[in-house]
Hints:
Largest sheet: 9 strands, antiparallel
Radius of gyration: 17 Å
Helix content: under 10%
Number of strands: 22
Amino acid sequence: MTTTDTKTASQEYIEWNVDLAVPIAVSGGSLPFSDTPMVGVKRMMFERRGDEIARRATSCVRYAEGSSFKPHSHPGGEEYIVLDGTFSDHNGDFTKGWYVRNPVGSTHAPFTKEGCEIFVKLSQVPSNEPDYFYLNTHEADWKTIEDKHFQLQLWQSDIENTTLNQFKAGYTSTVIKHDEVTEFFVLSGTAIINDVSYEHHSWMRFPAGTTITVSTTLGAVVYQKIGSGEVRV
């Protein structure tokens, strides 16, 4: 059944959680999904600078069954992971587990037949990254980092090191400290970061130089970005 939702809302200009020198921790489920300008499409905003055309944004976006977004461009590029369902555009159908980067200036009109959810970052791709990139994380080669820690490289450049990390039950890290901003998003399970438990849909960002520890009791899959990507003001 297609969506019967009739609510829409244009995004006014805001600056929300965009100070990279301030630690941010959003527990899963603590933020609501709000309406967007398109019927059946809602988003949970973790950070945003801009109005409907974001200068920087990190969100979870849910598409109801049969919903779509009007054709639009991404002046600062787009990066996303499909969390559930199938997300489609003119480049193909991307099921749960696909990681996609759309370059600066790319245009699409996304839609879904069955409904879907994505974790998406807008306007953080550098302008010198010209190509589209697609990775099926379920079929890619994961590396063993240490006992109970497996890692998949999603993207690496001079300004970011982005990985997907699978932590098995009982994992405990050594102390981590990076010279860049470090960001986490919990895709599944529960991760304990700096002695605080974060379930799926939790998002955290720590300033450069922060001491970090990661552990899990039952296991977790966690997106990690070291570096801020392109920062547009």
